[in-house]
Amino acid sequence: FETDLPMLTLHQCLGFLLAALLITATPGPDNLMVLGMGVSKGRRHGIAFGLGCAFGCLSHTVLAVIGVSALIAASPTAFTVLKIVGGLYLVWLGYNAWRSAGAVQVATVQGEDASLARLFFKGCLANAINPKVVLFFLSFLPQFVVAEQGEVALQLGALGLIFTLQAAMLFGVLGYFSGAIGQWLRRRPGAGKVLDRVAGTVFVGLGMKIMLGR
Fold first, then answer.
1. What Cα–Cα distance (Å) separates residue 152 from each residue in 75, 144, 209?
2. What pTM was estimated for this model as a whole?
3. Contacts of 52 (CB under 8 A, 6+ apart)
4. Partners of 53 in the beta sheet?
């Protein structure tokens, strides 16, 4: 079965979406900042900042499309090497997630209130200039690309768009329900550890799949 997205199968889309949702839901700088912004300034501010963080992923998608496409054009073998190196990186991320104490701290955000538009662009910039997110995208997106299907650039672009849209949805929900979610996390300090373990398992599974499969 195939979706309407260019050169992506239904299996690719569903597998990628599930992994992306689990990874995005894991407590990290972006979603904890969204929660903190919502708790401190209100749900509209949390939503605006969260949407900015999500759409900042588009810049990393563009870099991945350009970089990976150029790599394949230069040497198809290099693409396989990239996927294996990316798989090792994902295993390393999973290992660190399993070692994490899983502590979740929703810090309040100080300072004067900013306009919603300014918060949106602040979120975009914070995500776009984060080198760890760049490295993650270059490692994560190619794991779901099937070079034999052709149009690798379109596959990467579609996957990046899916990631951005699901992040926008999840961060929007976090911002809207920030007060309730923040209180729930404070009452359940072990929740972050559970989410870290789930994401760690996803990372390790993806990394091992590509390394054992090629």
1. 13, 10, 20
2. 0.79
3. 119, 120, 121, 122, 123, 124, 125, 126, 127
4. none
